[in-house]
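Hi team,

Below is the intake form for DUF4230 domain-containing protein from Erythrobacter crassostreae. Please confirm the fields before the structure is written into the shared record.

FORM ID: S-0412
PROTEIN: DUF4230 domain-containing protein
ORGANISM: Erythrobacter crassostreae
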Amino acid sequence: MADELTPVKVANSDRGILSSRGETVLALIAVALLVAALALGWRAYIYQEEGDPVASAMLAFEKQNSLVVFSSRFEVVAESTNTRGFAGIDLLENRQAAIIPASVEYRLNLSDISADSFEWDAESQELNVILPRLQTSRPNLDEAKARIFTDGVWVTRDDARELAANNSEQAERRAQTFAKNPEILSLARKAAKSAVRQNLTVPLQVAGYENARLNVRFEDEL
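The structure came back. Fields below:
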């Protein structure tokens, strides 16, 4: 009887040892799976991998050919005269003055902005942006709202048409000159820098650089 019971006890003892080891292995597997699941969840919902700030900035400009940053509205004054005579002697003089509303747009040509226009300082989290020269549109003259003043004893239709054409040419030239006024250009450049900052802030935040600083300047600025 004793000889028959001994193998049974040993067998029961062996099964107990194997069961304990199996539970340990299963517990380790469960812990590993839990850690993996937590890691995946953290990466999917919490972790945001920081992207390339320059690539993010370039992407913000990719879908735009140009960016209108400023519009200047003003009035220009033009004055023209013509004379009519006989045998080389001026007998009649006609004069026409016009005050014409005009507008000029200032644009950034985004196709001139390349990766070389950006410089990223990872340590200070600063993105330096160099802008190309501003471009101005051809002046838009609102001649329908012009105020016309004509002076002359006898102003024919042809005279009025000639005077108006001369005034339009003068007004366009003067509008172009006014658009390059240093004070107006200064306002346009400030508006351009502000527009670029606004266009780049969100892409940088999405890329993970919420505290990044943007330094914007034109290529002719030190």
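SUMMARY LINE: Residues 1-18, 38-49 have pLDDT under 50 and may be disordered.

Thanks, M.
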